[in-house]
Amino acid sequence: MISSEQCSKTSEGLWIRCPRLGGEAPFTYCMQEAGDLPCHRIIVCWQAFFPVEAYLRKKLSPQKRDEFADKKPKEKITSLLELIEKAKSKGDEE
Fold first, then answer.
1. Model confidence over 49-81: pLDDT tens digits?
2. Torsions phi, psi of 16, nearest 5?
C-alpha cells in the first residue's frame, strides 16, 4: 500500500511514486498509460488519496470501463520496450 507521504501535489497535479516505472509519475500519466485506457494499477495506487473508482466511472464511457475491466496487464519487459521505442521516436521527431 502506498502511504500518504508518497503523494505530492504540484502545479501539474497529483504525483506518486509509480511501482511500475520506479519513479515519480503524475495522475495524468496513470490515466493514459495504456493508450486511451488507464494503467491497470490505477485503483490500487491512488485509492488511498481520493475516490479514484468514482472518478473513473465519471470519466470513462461504459465501453471504456468494460475495456479497462477486461484488460490484461502487459508483461513488465513489454511495457519497458514500448516506453523505450516511444522515447526513441519522440527523440527522432525533435
1. 999 999 999 999 999 999 998 887 777 788 788
2. -140, 170
Between CA 3 and CA 74 the distance in angstroms is: 25
pTM above 0.70, yes or no: no
CB 56 within 8 Å of CB 68: yes
Q: Are strands 7-10 and 23-26 parallel, antiparallel or unpaired?
A: unpaired
**Structural domain boundaries of the chain?**
4-93
Contacts of the segment 64-70: beta carbons below 8 A, 24+ positions apart = 64/36, 64/37, 67/37, 68/37, 68/38, 68/40
